[in-house]
Amino acid sequence: MTDPIKEILDVWGLKLVNDAQDEVSRVVKYSGGQKPDLINKIKYRVLNTNNGYTFQFTMNDFGKVYPYYKDIEFGRRPGVKGVPTSALLKGFYANHNISPSKVIKEMRLKANPKSKAKANFEKDSKALAFIIQRSIKKKGIEARPFMDNIVNEERIKDLKTMLIPALKKKYVLEIKNALQK
Known about the structure:
By secondary structure, the chain is mainly alpha-helical.
């Protein structure tokens, strides 16, 4: 027999994840290949504990390398420590729409139209990551808040409204069982 409370939390969690993915897609226009990874890693879990259920909402953190979603939500001031190049490199490898070699080649041709440098994906990726890192450090990143649009009082109120009938039913049954003993 499935627990109706867990079912409600699962329905609510799935809706929360879908809305978060839509909101991130809306606020992040282009992000060096990290957007798809972030969207795919928005998840929820419902854990059954001794004290009831625990609801966890998690987002991509690139395996603890760098919490990218924080830069979307809060932005990044100019002049602070740069974004780790490892996080940028991961974005290049994850997104086939970015060709660091092509970008670096275009930059070299712009600086020196007679340049005949050969493309090297590894080397060009690191060079481009460093250029992006330096630009972010110099200019910062504008905040694009999205969490307030998905986790708000109205959503919490909806969850309470969904849970009340199931909780009433559960506790009425527990009281009836206790009285019968």
